[in-house]
Amino acid sequence: MRADRLLALLMTLQTRGRTTAVELAKELEVSVRTIYRDVEALGTAGVPIYAERGPGGGIALIESYRTNLTGLTADEARALFMLSIPTPLMQLGVGQELKAALLKLTAALPEASRKEQQAARQRIHLDASWWGQSGRPGPHLAVVQQAVWQERALRLVTRTMFGAEIEQVVEPLGLVAKANEWYLVALREGRPRTFRVSALAQAEMLETPVTRPEGFDLAAYWERYCAEVEAEKGLFWVRARISAALARDFKLYFGERAQLVLDEAGPADAQGWREVQLPFDSLEQARERVLGWGGGVEVLEPDGLRASVIDFAEQIRLRYRK
What we know:
The structure is a single chain. This protein is α+β, with helices and mostly antiparallel strands. Helix content is about 50%, strand content about 25%. It contains 15 helices and ten strands. It has helices spanning about 1-15, 20-30, 30-45, 65-70, 75-80, 85-90, 95-110, 110-125, 140-150, 220-230, 245-250, 250-255, 255-265, 285-295, 305-320, and strands at about 50, 60, 150-160, 165-180, 180-190, 190-195, 200-210, 235-240, 275-280, 295-300. A hairpin with a 2-residue loop joins β4 and β5 (about 180-190). It is elongated, with a radius of gyration of 31 Å.
């Protein structure tokens, strides 16, 4: 406890400069005698602290030690104060606390470094948002954040691209902000999944506790996820209707991705057919796979693939016509 108090005494003097023993005692909630004992202890340990009695006196650190205690060079201070408070942190409600922390740091800097701070802020401004981005995180960010901190399960309702609503219970692992857009990383059926918070139709924190997987690294997961998203940008996407029988065999064709495809699928009709988005490497690969599925699939888009499948099917029909 005394070590904490000594550190608090040092930081107070660094921030405020010369301060009376009475003011320090009130700030640290100890007696004036304790303050003088702490000053003596710091002096014995080699800290250049001194006390002056009488009017205008007080306890202070020498200026050079203030600089060493801060540990920031002019270049470091300039780099630090180029940063502005990101919008995602404001959305989480910690913006004011961060502002207060930066103000305290500013007060602790020598006068020269404070000038560097002002110069940096007037010359460099960082804007992490995309053009046309609203910056609104949606109505459910607070609930999701609370569940992440308290390690409680979440009941989510998401809408697919076809307008269907899917209700699922997930185990939250963390929140990630990318270009001012919040994403929830959560376990579903034992595997990490990613949900865009602004796209959630509903979010409810449950009483069910969540056990975080040992060794899970949020930053490492997000790096892998982003790499996968970038790799998929070059894929050839197909909108199609698939039969219930084909859906059951999807894992044979798409591996682990099969479940993700089906999760995003539209609701099944009376005959069990569903609309899905299918990823392929090229039109040629998509055509080969679709022809192999026979009557279990119908291509809806793109029109080029649909026409190509019809053409190849007609060529096959003519070849085998008796």
